[in-house]
Amino acid sequence: MKKWLINPFRYVSGWPALIAGIAGLLIMTAVSFYSKTHLDGVMDVHFGKEGSFVLFLKENLLTWISLIIAYGAIGLMITGRSFRFIDLAGYTLLMRLPLLIVVFFPFVFGGTNVVDHILYLLLDIGEPVQISAMDVVWFIIMIILTIVFVFWSIIWGYFAFKTLFHTSGLKALALFFITILLAELIVKLSIYFVFSDMALFPV
To answer: Ramachandran region of residue 169, left (φ > 0), alpha (ψ -120 to 50) or beta?
Structure first.
């Protein structure tokens, strides 16, 4: 079980990985719609802003497509055509599954009150909200746990990268870092210049 939690890509690939990833994406989209949790980037999680179901689906799909493009581009550079597209598509979805836990956090910790308070104070968005000291404490715990699970997703992304392209060591780590930054850049540029309706905050 421990090995599955660290590196599931040793045990699953092809259609099973893709199907599990699609199921996870659909569940994340549905839950994030109700918990108002935006997964609008490879390393981004934002809480508290409402939106349509289609908006949350777009965020997940755009992040997945950006990962496919970034992984595929770097993979072609270092290995040519020695990887299967179905593995690429499945792995880049599967690496996001740790975030499935994150989208439940607002139900558990109730941190959206603090988010609403911050948005009103800093950006004049929404209405003023009364918060307590315990609201702030639970919000801080939620943020810390969110960082942990985002980091877990990135670790899975690294193992997906190594498994897909049969590379290791410092070279794999450096190329993976470039890949993640490239995917994040694609997501953000797409949001602000193509899918402006997905931008959470006014630019």
So the answer is: left
Please list the helix, strand and coil fractions of the chain in percent, rounded to the nearest 5, in that order: 75, 0, 25
Look at residue 122 and tell me whether its pLDDT is greater than 90. Answer: no
- Tokens read off for 17: 């990985």
Helix (H) / strand (E) containing 133: helix 133-165
Counting the structural domains of the chain, the total is 1
Write down the pLDDT at residue 100: 95
| Alpha-carbon torsion angle 170, 172, 173, 178, nearest 10 | 130
The alpha-carbon radius of gyration of the chain (Å, integer) is 18
- Confidence grade of residue 197 (pLDDT, cut at 50, 70, 90): low
CA atoms within 13 A on the CB side of 94: 30
Q: Which is higher by pLDDT, 107 or 124?
A: 107
How far is the C-alpha of 183 from the C-alpha of 152, rounded, in Å?
Answer: 17
In a domain, 40, yes or no: yes
Query: What are the DSSP calls for 37-49, one per residue?
Result: EE--SSS--EES-
pLDDT at 23: 95
Q: What is the residue-averaged pLDDT of the chain?
A: 86
Asked if the structure places residue 1 within a domain, the reply is: no
- Domain with 19 in it: 11-106+145-198
Q: What confidence category does residue 31 fall into, taking pLDDT thresholds of 50, 70 and 90?
A: very high
Contact 33, 104 (CB under 8 A): no
Residue 37 lies in a domain: yes
